[in-house]
Design brief:
single chain, 153 residues, alpha/beta, six-stranded parallel beta sheet, 6 strands, 37% helix, binds flavin mononucleotide
Length: 153
Amino acid sequence: MHLTILVGTMTGTAELVAEEIQTVLEADGHGADIKLMDGLDSAVFQPDGPYLIVTSTYGQGDVPDNTRALMDSLERSKPDLSKVRYGIFALGDRTYTETFCLGGKQFDAMLRDLGAQRVGEILMHDASAGTMPEEVALDWIPGWLSLCEESLA
Ligand SMILES: Cc1cc2nc3c(=O)[nH]c(=O)nc-3n(C[C@H](O)[C@H](O)[C@H](O)COP(=O)(O)O)c2cc1C
């Protein structure tokens, strides 16, 4: 399997999560590319491989600034993503009760509207829970990968 990990971040935490996931995948004989979302457009989504969106939430439930170009492009061009499979690892903080992990949820809603199929549930990391998102990712990724392999079979 070759996974593309798309990263939305303000201060780099989501990128650390992506790097951990990449290390695990490569050790397991898979391939994984990490792409910061800065300047990407909807053409990044190809039917051939699964995608993992790793994104935080800022402002009042907003997506990080570096994801704007991609979000705008998806909204404008409305590509048919019905062959695309994706997962979401959302970073947030439950002290923002009204907007917890809304950045990841916004991506989920956008991709679903364009016909893409989500694999598994959205992982919502809570920065106030005292766990490190990279460590949570290590526990989460094997189960998600199995679901992904099943969905591609
Ligand atoms: C100014 C600010 C606003 C935030 N707003 C939210 C929010 O609305 N909802 C949420 O769940 N988390 C919110 N967070 C928490 C971040 O999403 C969380 O700390 C995340 O781990 C940061 O990841 P990053 O370094 O990849 O951007 C906010 C953090 C900051 C500093």
